[in-house]
Amino acid sequence: MRLPLVFYGDPRLRKKSQPVTKITDELLKLADDMLDTMDINHGVGLAAPQIGQTIRFFILRNHIVTPEGHIQLTDPQAYINPKITILSSEEMQTDIEGCLSIPGIHEEVERPLKIRVEAMGLNGEIFVEEIEGYKARVVMHENDHINGVLFIDRISADKRKKLEPILREIKKKYHAAD
Ligand code: ZN
Hints:
The protein is α+β, with helices and mostly antiparallel strands. It has helices at about 25-40, 135-145, 155-175, and strands at about 45, 55-65, 70-85, 90-95, 105-110, 115-120, 125-130.
């Protein structure tokens, strides 16, 4: 079931989310609904605060490039209570990011290239991954969400200033009553 998205300007996007204490049927249902919501909106990652739940949980799909050069999305993956370690503070990567909660804005963001992430899956088991490049970027973007951080916080002050009118429009469009 598709859930309504929460957009820039909503205070829930700025909250530090709470750890998940138990994998309940509600959480599994939420994960299912978040996946529908992410796919319908053509997102590659979705964090719980983006559908209004301030819990430390996100999902993503990685993408792979086939030998023919086509981009294919992988099976979804869930991260509960993730802990991220940056593996090398010298190696950085820069790429374009967007966010389902900030429609219409795409900007270059610099992030570490390689990270280690420890999280719990929906089966209740802890897993550890060492990842780099695009997948690491998606994990860091979604992990930012559960800390109340948005990708526009990670761009230069100059660029951010130029975005202010668009951000104001987004606020107006989705929070008309505010
Ligand atoms: Zn986002």
